[in-house]
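Q: Structure for this?
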Amino acid sequence: MDHNVFDDPRITAIGLLFEASAGLSARFAAQFEEHGLSPVEFEVLMRLTRSPGHQLRMTDLAAQTSLSTSGVTRVVDRMERDGLLRRRACPSDRRSSYAVVTAAGLARLDETLPGHLQIIEQWFTGQLDPAALDSLLDGLRRVRDAVHPGATAGSTDPAPAHVPSAAGC
Amino acid sequence: MDHNVFDDPRITAIGLLFEASAGLSARFAAQFEEHGLSPVEFEVLMRLTRSPGHQLRMTDLAAQTSLSTSGVTRVVDRMERDGLLRRRACPSDRRSSYAVVTAAGLARLDETLPGHLQIIEQWFTGQLDPAALDSLLDGLRRVRDAVHPGATAGSTDPAPAHVPSAAGC
DNA sequence: GAGCAACTATAGCCGCAGCAATATTCCCTG
DNA sequence: CAGGGAATATTGCTGCGGCTATAGTTGCTC
């Protein structure tokens, strides 16, 4: 029990990261639900809204989220049924289709975002003084860049740097 | 586009936290799979093994993981079928039952842990010099303590402080 | 000691999401 | 321009896990 694995600083470190992350996720989910959104739906709304024309091809949307292409198909199904999104055929490539944010989708996002930002501030960024926060973010950025989830990532990147295949459309 | 929400420092911050966390999760999942474990199964194995007698009542196990009680029932079903765990009736309370780690379960954990620790070091703790790491962990601890996932948390706590109801057993 | 509320584990039902298979379309090569 | 390989979206199938209902057990109160 002297060099118990459970006391290993690495276990402690990863525990802190995951608990902080999970705790925030739970707060977010609760607030999203108040506005009739699931976490994935919010993420989809964010990704699409920040994209040019408030739209993205299904594949590209999948690449920018934590979802597979079939997962995207179903989320877009639900959100289209709820009027938040709309499918649009790609004129130049008849295999592709766009998911486009509707006015209702934009409104829903606008209605959800203030509370979301407030929660981030209350439970995360506001918990630390500016210097400590910078320090934390620097560390996270280092880790993020190292582990680079590839498709899962990109939230901070203004453009995915990929610009995969939205060329002809 | 001047005060675009997407460029809000809070969005950037939470993006970094989630991407780092998700990236590490993905690495972990891949390594767990090499040893025939899912992330939840690994978590269950860790929680039980660090508990006195390598066992925990189903309810307490649920409280210490990200699972509901019915979720625990099913995970334990699977792991019992695979020989990693074993159910044991609680002698003093016939409603309760224990999940106990078997020798095979311990062996599986021992076989999985070194690689797990190595991944943590390679992609997380080893990415930063000691001072920066301390800084990062301090920040995370602050956030963790604030958001305190309640049941979901506890990974770093040697004892859950609760010591819920394992009294009579 | 009978009744009742709280607790414990489980089973039914459901939605979600990944993988693999499929149909369609595109593009490149000969 | 014919044919084959790659890309795109969708669907079937599966496993996972939460919520709710249920059955059994406990302890408390009258």
